[in-house]
Amino acid sequence: VMTMDLHADQIQGFFEVPVDHLYSSALFIRDIEGMKLKNLCIASPDMGGAKRAHAYGSKLEADVVVCYKERKKANVIDKMTVIGDVEGKNVILVDDMVDTGGTLCKAAEMLKEKGAKTVGAYCTHGVLSGPAHERITNSALEELVITDTIPQTQENPKIRVISVAEMFSQVMKNVHHHESISGHFIM
What we know:
Number of domains: 1
Number of helices: 5
Strand order of the largest sheet: 5-4-3-6-7-8-9
Largest sheet: 7 strands, mixed
Low-confidence stretches: none
CATH topology: Rossmann fold
Radius of gyration: 17 Å
Structural class: alpha/beta
Distance between the termini: 19 Å
Number of strands: 9
Shape: globular
Helix content: 25-40%
């Protein structure tokens, strides 16, 4: 079984067969490096993604900030603050998934209010339910990059999709030939 960016690493333990857990970070980091952004800053939209943001920051030699959110009920943010300095920086939010887009768009808004020059986002799984497309369209995000782990049926000029097909096919080939797949495990 091959998975990508499980929402919780513990899920891997529920399988009774060998599991290769892949990460989109290999694709995303290559894409971010290709933009050659100056004053790059990686951000997590919540405390739960801080470890992921730090891994990206380390690999990209970029500053890292974390957005802290308080919720009183699911999908409704009561309060959000930014921990760290983003003044004049090109900020990229990283997360494993984007569902309704509430947290991601609120984080982008907060980062712009705190002086970020630009704000983009990279999220592995684009669930994009309910008001997600409208929120993203009207948000401070310049671009949201997702993978094709979930097929997209609606076009959005702010959303770009990166395919994971080549990564999965290469890993399958390596497994079949008993070769290393460690190059696909960035995090």
